[in-house]
Design goal:
85 residues; mainly alpha; 4 helices; 0% strand
Length: 85
């Protein structure tokens, strides 16, 4: 669901991933891309793609960081269990 949101509304996906400052800069990039796309310029399409790619990377990084944290916590619990028993 977050990946779909990252493609449709990149700033919101970044904000929900816990990166408010990146969400502000992504929103500026995304709004500029929308404005340049509405005007007869083709420059806006790559900006929209860049904003979406950025959001996809942030969402994927958040999921990876959560997985990494869970692995570290499990390893620490096993280490404590071995020391205590």
């Amino acid at each position: 669901m977050m990946y779909l949101l990252a493609v449709v509304l990149p700033p919101l996906a970044i904000l929900l991933s816990g990166r408010p400052f990146q969400a502000v800069f992504n929103a500026l990039l995304w709004v500029l891309g929308v404005v340049l796309t509405v005007l007869p310029f083709l420059v806006g399409l790559p900006l929209l793609g860049l904003a979406a790619l950025w959001a996809l990377m942030v969402v994927h990084g958040r999921k990876q960081a959560t997985r990494d944290r869970r692995l570290v916590d499990d390893a620490l619990q096993r280490d404590r269990a071995q020391r205590n028993g």
